[in-house]
What does this fold into?
Amino acid sequence: MRMTPIAAKELKAAFNSPIAYIVTVAYLVFTSVWLFFLNQFFSHNEASLRIYFAVIPTVFIFLVPALTMRSWAEERRTGTLEVLLTLPFREGEVVLGKFLGCFSLLCIVVALSIPLPLSLAPLGRFDWGQVAGEYLGVLFIGTAGIALGLFVSSLSTNQITSFILSGLALLAFTLVNQLNLLVTLPPWLAALVNWVSFGSHYDSFRRGVLDSRDVLFFLLAIGAFLLLNVQVLLRRKWS
Amino acid sequence: MQSPVIEVLGLSKSYGPVHAVKDVSFSVGSGEIVGLLGPNGAGKTTIMKILSCYLFPTRGTARVNGHDVFQAPVAVKECVGYLPENAPLYPDLTVREYLEFIADARRLSGAARRERMDIVIGECGLEAVVNRGIDELSKGFRQRTGLAQVLLHDPRILILDEPTSGLDPHQIVEIRELIKRLGREKTVILSTHILQEVEATCQRILILNEGRIAAQGTREELEGTLKGEVLLDVTFKGGGAEAGARGLVEIAGVRKVISVRALSADAAAVRLSLAPDGGAEERIFDWAVSRGLRIVAMVPQRLSLEDIFITLTENVPSEGGAQ
It folds into this structure.
C-alpha cells in the first residue's frame, strides 16, 4: 500500500492554506472558553476533565467537516481529481492516503490541546488513566468522523455542500442515542440506536472504561465509510 | 511495423443516455504524434480519459503499451503521462511542492529524481517560478507546470488534452516545438479543435465527429480519401489570353476550367481542376507557347485541412457528441 505521498500532499496543502490554522485555533479557543469560562472549571473544585471531554463530540460536529470538506469536493471542482486518479495508485490507496492526511491533521490538533490538562496537573490529583482513555476516545470519535466526512465529500462537488452534509450526518451519528431519552422505542431498536451512535461509544471512553467492543465499533465504522468511499471512486469510472 | 503502443478496439462510452464515443478503433505506433481533431463534444476528451484510465469504456477494449485498461490500470498509468484539459493543478502548493508530490507518486528517488526534476524544470522553463504558489501563476506557467508533471517520470506515452488552449501565440509556438521534440522518442496523442495545431505538430490525424472517427490518416492520405481534385492557378500574359483560356479544357488531364478572370487587357488568371495523375502542367505550357501566350505564374493549390475538416463534419447538428 502506498499512501504516504498523498497523505503528505494533503498535509502540505492544508498548512499552505489558512484552513489548518483556523481549525486548530478554533478548536483550542472554543474548548478552553468552554472549560474555564462557560463552565467555570475552577468553581467546581474537582480534579476531573469530565466537562472538557463532554463537549468535544459537539465541537467535532463542526470541526471535522471543516477538515474533510475539501478533500474530494475541491479535487472534483478544480479538476485535479483527473491528475490524482491517473497517477499510478489504486483507488484504495488514494482513499487511504486522503484519510491518513486528515487523520494526521486531527492528531496534530488534538496533540496541541495536551498542554491544557498538563497545565492543570499541579492543581489537583487527576486520574491520568481516565484522561488517557478520554483522549483515546477523542481520537476514535474524531477519526470515525473523518471517515464519514471523506465519504460525504466524495459525493459532493462543492465544499460548502460537503461541509453542511457531513455536519448533519455527524450530528445524526453522534446524537442518535439521545432518541432513547425522548421516546420509548422497541427494545431492539433502542439497542440498535445505541449501537450505531458515536456518542454512546465515546461515553464509555469518557467513563474511563476501555472496552474492546467500543474500539471494534469505531474500527468497523471507519472501515465501512472508507470502503464506501472506494466504491464511489470505482463507480465513477463506470458512469 | 512494430506492435502498436496504443490499440483501441470497438471503444464506446456512454454517460447515461449520452453516447460520447461510438465504436471507435484505431492504433498508434511507437514514436508517432497523433492528433485527435474534432468539434467540441466529438469525443476527444472521453477517448483520452479512457486511455489514461480515468474512466472505463462502456464497451470495447483499449491496450496501452500492452496493458489492458481493465486488467492492469496501474501498469497503464505508470507508462502514461496525462495532461487533462486546462491543466488542473493544486492551488495550495508551490510548483516545487507539486512536482515533489508527483515524483513521490511516480516512485522517483535519489539521483534519478533530482536529475528528472532539473530536466523538466529546465525543459518547461519553470526556473523562475519553482518556489511560487501555483495560485499566483499565469495561465502560461500553469500550462507548463502541467506539462512538467506529465514529463517528470519520462513516460513512453504522452496524452495531452488541448495542450495549447489559453496560451498566447508565442507560448503556443514554444509548446508545439516542445511537443515535436518530445515526439522524436515518445508516442504522443494530443487533442485540439484548432486545425493549424495538428498541421503544425502531428504526423497522423484522426478526425472525430459525433463520437465516431470520420477520417484518419496522414494529411496527404486525408486529401486522397476526399478524392481531392488538384487545383492549379495559372496566370497567362499575351493578347487574347482571356478569350482563349476556355479552350484549356481540350487538353488531356484538365478536367474543368473553374474560373477565368481578366487581370488586365492582356492578362488572365485561370483556375483549373486537374486529374491527379499529373502531366497536364507540361501540356498547358506547350498550349500557351503554341498560342503565343506566356505563363507568368503556375501555382498548385493544396486542399487545406480546413476544407477537409469542414467537408467531413458538416451537415451535422452543432451539439456534436450529444446524441
Summary: The radius of gyration of chain A is 19 Å. DSSP finds 13 helices and no strands in chain A.
